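Q: Sequence in, structure out?
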Amino acid sequence: MEPAEVLAVLVAFAGEAGIRVRAAAGAEAALESALCRVRGELWLVLVPSDPLEHRIGVVVRALRAHAPALLEERWLPPAVRARVEGEGAGPEERS
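A: Exactly. Output:
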């Protein structure tokens, strides 16, 4: 599975977990992909100019922190499951 496909699955899963996912627009040079809270809701802001592996890592960390039970009970494609469990993770995903 290509990294872009892994990111797409993770983003869809984050949405199912109740995390709003938004792509940053505008002054991207001053932004970095991150999880934040807006008016009590979790928002995952992804900056398209960030490296793909960094964006994957941000989503993985958000899911580990805010949807661990859902991650445990849901089937995920093996390549995505490996990222979530820390196997085959890029250097920016390991924590």
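The chain has one domain: 3-84.
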